[in-house]
Design goal:
This protein is about 35% helix and about 30% strand. It is an alpha/beta fold and about 300 residues long. The chain has a 6-stranded mixed beta sheet with strand order 5-6-7-3-8-9, with helices on both faces. It is elongated. One of its GO terms (molecular function) is ATP binding.
Length: about 300
């Protein structure tokens, strides 16, 4: 077990930023903490890191309370970029390596590895002042991984970055995970979380609403499925035909397209198509909407992530 959080709570005066959250994390997972602005994600990870005091509850990392030895096994990428503009990029990573006790050849090798990992080695001699926002974020990550932490905690590492840097950051996380690093990662970008996380925890208003794999959350929460049929004509007639088919919950029309909402567990698409074909109604296209974490979040909280 890498992380064992039991019933932690944090209040700022009357505001409950984190409310009674328990969460476990096994080795080699990528945990995505997903929630809208102000949900309590940063407060949660700051408590794990010992940066914010816990009001109640307990946290164990590597089966121990946080101490100096444990801290050396953790890497932290803060939400706000924390690099020094007076040093070039290479010296920034060097500085962090030294802070973690690396010296000599080991330090040089580790700095090179971290900068290659984040795609910055070729531009190591430049000042971070000359870097794009995305490159600064990657430098922030290089500083956090130079000591090869077993647990890497990242607070919204892809906020405001260009697509190229975002892909690089996601690839870096995947590669680190493949080489044995456990990762905790906060975001409100649903697609990223779906793409890279082995485990997802949805937080809203300081509470852990649901946790599991992306698929298990979608399966558990979403009880409906949507199919869109684009028809050549006879839309009204198609509604009459489909309305009574088993599993159909509701139908709506937009232009030449009928949207059919059905119960997830009932397989009725073949029957719908058969009925339309028999009635000589031509189907131009069929679109089956894939369930998303965004839809699961909406169903759980009644709001979108960007609300
Ligand atoms: N130091 C503080 N003092 C008072 N209130 C705080 C403090 N830090 C956070 N909060 C409040 O606690 C709540 C949770 O904030 P937190 O930063 O943990 O959310 P978040 O999910 O990380 O949001 P974001 O995605 O915007 O970073 C918010 O209402 C925030 O205003």
């Amino acid at each position: 077990m890498i992380l064992d959080v039991k019933k932690i709570t944090k209040k700022y005066n009357k505001l409950v930023a984190v409310n009674d959250i328990s969460l476990q994390l096994e080795e080699n997972e990528i945990l995505g903490l997903l929630g809208p602005n102000g949900a309590g994600k940063s407060t949660f990870i700051n408590m794990i890191l010992g940066l914010t005091k816990v009001d109640s509850g307990t946290i164990e990392i590597f089966e121990k309370k946080l101490n100096r030895i444990i801290k050396k096994k953790i890497g932290y990428v803060p939400q706000d970029i924390a690099v020094c503009n007076e040093l070039n990029a290479y010296d920034n990573v060097m500085f962090f390596g030294k802070l973690y006790g690396l010296r000599g050849d080991k330090l040089k090798e580790s700095v090179k590895k971290a900068m290659e990992f984040t795609g910055l080695w070729e531009r190591r001699k430049e000042s971070p002042k000359k870097y794009s926002g995305g490159m600064k974020r990657r430098l922030n990550i290089a500083c956090a991984i130079v000591h090869e932490p077993q647990l890497l905690i990242m607070d919204e590492p892809t906020v405001g970055v260009d697509p190229q840097s975002r892909n690089n950051i996601l690839e870096t996380i995947k590669k680190l995970n493949e080489s044995g690093t456990t990762v905790i990662y906060t975001s409100h970008y649903m697609e990223e979380i779906e793409e890279i996380c082995t485990k997802v925890a949805i937080i809203d208003n300081g509470e852990l609403i649901i946790e599991g794999t992306s698929d298990s959350i979608k399966n558990e929460v979403l009880t409906e499925k949507l199919v869109r049929l684009q028809l050549e004509d006879e839309i009204e007639k198609s509604i009459e035909l489909i309305n009574d088919i088993e599993g159909v919950i509701s139908l709506s029309i937009s232009g030449d397209t009928v949207t059919i909402k059905s119960k997830k567990e009932i397989d009725n698409l073949a029957i719908i198509i058969e009925k339309l074909v028999k009635a000589n109604i031509k189907i131009i296209s069929i679109n089956i909407e894939q369930p998303t974490l965004e839809a699961a979040f909406l169903s759980l909280t009644g709001k979108t992530l960007r609300d």
